[in-house]
Structure formats: C-alpha cells, structure tokens
C-alpha cells in the first residue's frame, strides 16, 4: 500500500474524496493570476480530500498524517492568490468547510468556526445587530479561516487596518502536528503569530474576532476627469473622521470599461472613486464630491446587491477583484501588491504612474498606517515577460514603495523582508516538527532542515 492508501485506511468514518477530477479541482486556487506561479504550480495536486466534521476528526487526521508521513494542505474557499492552497508535495487536502458555525457574539466579540463562509458569517452577525470588521472582496466564497491564514485585509481596512493590527484577531484555536497532536488556544500576539502562515503552523478550528455594530452600507461610485482628482478626493474622504466608511478605492480611467456591472454609468475615460458609506454620511459625501468636480454616477445598497443573484456589490470591483474583472476579459494581465509611504503618498503614486504608462493601470485602496492615512496599490500590470515584471518591482522598491510579491509561493518571499525568519522557524518546529503542513510554502524551514 502507498502511504496515502494507508493514510486513508486509518481514517475511520471521516468523509474522504478520491475521485481524481474532484481532487484536482480542490487542489487549485487563484495562483493563475500570476503567469510565474501558473508555470510553477500547474502540475501540483493532492492525492485525496479529507472532510473533517469537527475538532476530533482533525485530531485523528493529524495523528494519522504523522504516522503515515502524509502532507496536509488545509483549504477553505480556495480563493487564495499565491498557490497558498495548492499541495506542492501531494498528500491530503483538508477541506475545512464543515466547521461552519457562529458560536457566540457578545460585546463586540464573536467566536466562529474557521470554515465558515464570510458572507454566511456576516449575515449571521447581522441578524444579531453586528457585522464583521473586515472581509476580503471574495466575501461570497472565502472562509474566515482562509482569510486569517492567507489574507491580509480588505473591505473595512480603511477603518480597522489590516488583519494583523492588534485588536482585530483576539484569539484562535488550532490543531497542531506536534509529537502528540492537540488542540491549543492562543491569544493576543501569540495568536497573531499564526496569521498569514498559509496553514503551515496548524489547522485553525475556531477564531475570536472583533466585530462592529451593523450598518446599512451604501455603494457609491464617483467619477472624475483625471486620476489625480479622484485620488485627492478619495484620500480626503479616507481622512474625514466624521464620515463612517467601509471602503475607499480609486481606479484609473482604463479600468471601468472592464467593469461589466457599472461601465455604462461611467463617462468615457473617467477615473472612479468607489465607496461604501454609512447612511449618515451620504449627504456629506455628495456635497464634497460636487465641490471636487466629481460626478456621482452609481449608487446602490450594498447588502441588496450582495443578496441578489447576478448583481455585483461595488466591493467586487475593488481589492483583488479589480484584477479579476480584467482577467475575465483578457488573460494578458497580472498584478502587484504595493505599500505606499504615508508621507507624500499621492506624489509617489504619480511618480510610479508616470514611469509605467503602458505597463500599469493604477488602483489604490486607502487604509490607516501608524496614525496616518496611506494606501495600498494593486495595479493591474500588462504582462510581457518575467524580466519586465521584475524590473517594475525593482523600480517600485528603488523609489521607497514596498512590494508584497504575489508571484512567489513562500510566506517570507511574499512579505517585505524576504529572508528566513527564526521566529517563524521556532513556531514551525513547535507545532509541525515533521514539516507535514502545506510543504513548500515556508522558506524558514530551511533553517530547521539545516539543524537536522
Ligand atoms: C478575486 C480575489 C479577490 C481577493 N481579495 C482579497 C482581499 O480583499 N483581501 C485579502 O486579504 N485577500 C484577498 N484575496 C485572497 C483570498 O481570497 C483571501 O485571502 C481569502 O480570504 C482566502 O480565503 P479562502 O477561504 O478562500 O482560503 P483558501 O484559499 O482556501 O486558503 C488560503 C490559505 O489559508 C490556509 N487555510 C485555509 N483554511 C485554513 C484553516 N482553517 N486553518 C489553517 N489554514 C487554513 C490554506 O492552506 C491556504 O494556505 C483575493 C483573492 C481573489 C482571487
């Protein structure tokens, strides 16, 4: 028997799936956004899918995986971008979506199982008068566990910062693959150590997160004659303490033609500011837009759009959905993730736009940074070849713009420091000493391998 056959034979009544077409499908995420990762990961698949129903199942899976040396790759909605959920050394895909309950919510804190879909979570919270502080633009398909293990921020970040900002994730429970697999609870900074580690440090079962009182958000799109005017207006809205907002995005005039749901409302060539605003702020935003030569070209209720099949809430034109809207029409594009400095932000954006008029369609997302307002950019890049892509990255970095590179598979190379992290290696050694969790995604294990 192969080790995977032995693994499967020891699982008892835990549901499994081995139909090759299904296993292949569940071994994919959105890595193909990157032509570089596409080449690297197209041939990587798991051998089977396991579908734990509860923590007990996960503990059993962890024990059997150790016994049979079977790699485990956790999976939520499979919307990660960097091949995060693609098994690079075969083994089992661990489908987490049966752990999908809201456990409790009280005083601005919610406890939730990690496989719960983000839209289901938000709806369940809404019924109780609350909502999630932040969600990825993949809210309709992603899970909360996948967001925490693979994402970084999104809709709501303009108010609450990133997932790693202290206060957003209060605690988590996870199953380890240590000598005696166990379920552990971590809180505060220890819990934050597990964020964005692509499931390489444990199988998250529950999360405790900050939530906020529910708001009836309104989608607003405001067009401007130039990108510069749009960016100045967006930054101004992001800075206005008296206006409650969930989203402040800007897209270049080349992008709205790719947005099937709103393009007919946008004047030709106009740049767009995309907002989610609380009802009390709408009148003020309209007045400020008029004073800034902006034109309100589209308005809708966010939740109504979200709940209507075929409709597109405006947040599905923002964050990493901007790139998706372009890729739906033309696979010749890819993207970057850039962090702009909070001083001279818009001047720097202008400098980069001027450098790459033919390569890059600019897209900004505003959020707070160290007491200031700054922005991330997720520009859509016309892909010519890898050399040009690396040149564009290098030119950003030379000019003080940080790049979180979405064209690499490891946690560290996709971050800002790009070197092995002793702290991460120590976490790995403690919770997964046999290196069975999502192998190939952590550069720091090289230090462990060197130690023997
Ligand atoms: C169109 C598009 C838009 C996006 N927008 C955003 C955005 O706005 N903000 C953002 O941060 N990201 C964004 N992303 C990336 C991705 O959607 C998010 O990170 C999302 O939250 C991932 O959730 P998921 O359930 O699909 O995770 P998956 O893709 O299934 O998994 C992501 C990673 O987490 C691990 N994982 C999953 N569940 C668990 C668990 N329970 N325990 C341990 N590890 C686990 C997986 O192994 C994998 O490494 C976007 C991606 C796309 C394609």
Outline the secondary-structure elements.
Elements: H1 3-9, E1 16-17, H2 20-25, H3 35-41, E2 48-50, H4 55-68, E3 72-75, E4 92-95, E5 102-106, E6 109-113, H5 118-127, E7 130-132, H6 144-150, H7 157-160, E8 169-175, E9 183-187, H8 188-192, E10 203-213, E11 218-224, H9 227-239, E12 245-251, E13 271-277, H10 282-291, E14 295-301, H11 302-307, H12 321-327, E15 333-335, E16 338-339, H13 345-355, E17 360-361, E18 363-369, E19 372-377, E20 380-382, H14 386-398, E21 402-403, H15 422-431, H16 445-451
Parallel strand pairs: 2-4, 3-4
Antiparallel strand pairs: 1-2, 5-6, 6-10, 7-10, 8-9, 8-10, 11-13, 11-14, 12-13, 12-18, 15-20, 16-19, 16-21, 17-20, 18-19
Helix pairs in contact: 1-4
* Distinct small molecules bound, one entry per kind: flavin-adenine dinucleotide
Give the CA-based shape. Answer: globular
Helix content: 25-40%
| Average of pLDDT | 96
Please give the largest β-sheet: 8 strands, antiparallel
Protein name: FAD-linked oxidase
Organism: Gluconobacter cerinus
InterPro entries: FAD-bd_PCMH, FAD-bd_PCMH-like_sf, FAD-bd_PCMH_sub2, FAD-linked_Oxase-like_C, Oxid_FAD_bind_N
GO molecular function: D-lactate dehydrogenase (cytochrome) activity; D-lactate dehydrogenase (NAD+) activity; FAD binding
